[in-house]
Amino acid sequence: MKIAMVASEAAPFVKTGGLGDVLQALPQALSEIKNNEVSVFIPFYDRIKYSGKYDVEFLGYFDVPLAWRREYVGLLRLKSRRKKLKIYFIDNEHYFCRGCVYGCADDGERYAYFAKAALASMAFIGLQPDVVHCHDWQAALVPLLLKTEYRESFPNTRSVFTIHNIEYQGKANLSFNYDVIGLPRECDEILRFDDCTNLMKAAIVTADQVSTVSQTYCQELRYPYYAHGMSQVLSSRGGDFTGITNGIDIKLFNPMTTAGLAAHYNEKTFREGKVRNKLALQKELGLPEDRDTAMLAMVTRLAGHKGIDLLCYIAERLMTRRVQLVVIGTGEEKYEWFLRGLQERFGRQVSVNLCFSADLANLVYAASDLYLMPSKSEPCGLSQLMAMRFGAVPVVNATGGLKDTVPAYEGPESEGRGFTFQSYNADDFLAAIDRALALYYDAPAQWQELVRHDMSQDFGWDKGAERYMALYHKALGDKA
Ligand code: GLC
User: Which of 15, 48, 49, 269 has the most CB atoms within 10 Å of its CB?
Assistant: First the structure.
């Protein structure tokens, strides 16, 4: 099958969150399936273009219509020996060389342009994909374009739209079609939601299949509490809206090989391996070097829905436990202030690192015993998977993908992987941490068994890639 992916980020080229990780690992996994050819289209942001890190070839240029004007498209491709996986970059200095990825006043226009440019690029190189798989609001115009402006160019191509983050929907004012997109008036109703233009809504109603990144989240999105206004639109798709749980790149995230660790280890050698990483991390962060104290970690965006409020609420009480806490991340100022204050008061227990560094993150996963993820909602979440792969036991709010990937530990006989709480409540969060600490300190053999169990799970993309293949076949109308 010929699959084209359209997304605003893909690691290692550009990544601001989990979307970037998925767009690195999923295309790779799909390309390993027999007879598949995968092409990935992302913007040629300045951080890629001027990094000097990538060997690219220029394929040509042309322009695309945006309402009453035409805009330049430069098309480049990563030079690579991989025949079944190609990475394409859409170049336009005006739109993508801004010193940032998102956050411009004209983001709507930038990504409306991107969606058109991606399809125009496929036509330019003569690529006729069976399925175009587009991700989040930035690529959300693609399904509608495939049914309208690009119908004749791609008569047999079907579309799949995946929701990674429903908070951002690509909203614009009602004249957006007239000013920027330039589709016929009949499309206004499709693009319209709540008296705005809403690109995600247009994708949900026009894509041949719609999905999100875990099964529980797919159920949750039918409720207004989670769906940011989209619950009815999503429900209207019935069985054409499904959940496929993300994986991670298990070659990239591998305690036997990953860079940044003080010692490599596997599910047999983790006891010694994790202690060496813990001591190295304590040394690096200036925490007391103590192999026995439970190390708690969070690697997260400091955003409300990640559950940072719960951490703030229990922080003082948590400090009365025998723990060290390491936090890595950046985000909302109020949380940064709070965490800085916490570190000032409890410097021997807390290390707050308001930055993001992949190497440090890997060391933290490897060094920590408990990984905290009290998200208010979580489409899938990837860091709990990375944590388990490195033998850090998750403590999570049982919501979205966290519920699917971290079944509750209920004793040595259970298949559980971590400690969970069932409602977004700080005391319940603390109680879950306490249950974890009780096992860690009072039943070390069972604790080790749990770590071994988590490390031996298969968090790779093989199963997920097969499920996406089934979804693509469904989009194409193939019989199962
Ligand atoms: C978004 C979601 C996260 C998910 C990721 C990749 O970042 O918030 O839960 O894992 O996308 O799908």
Answer: 48
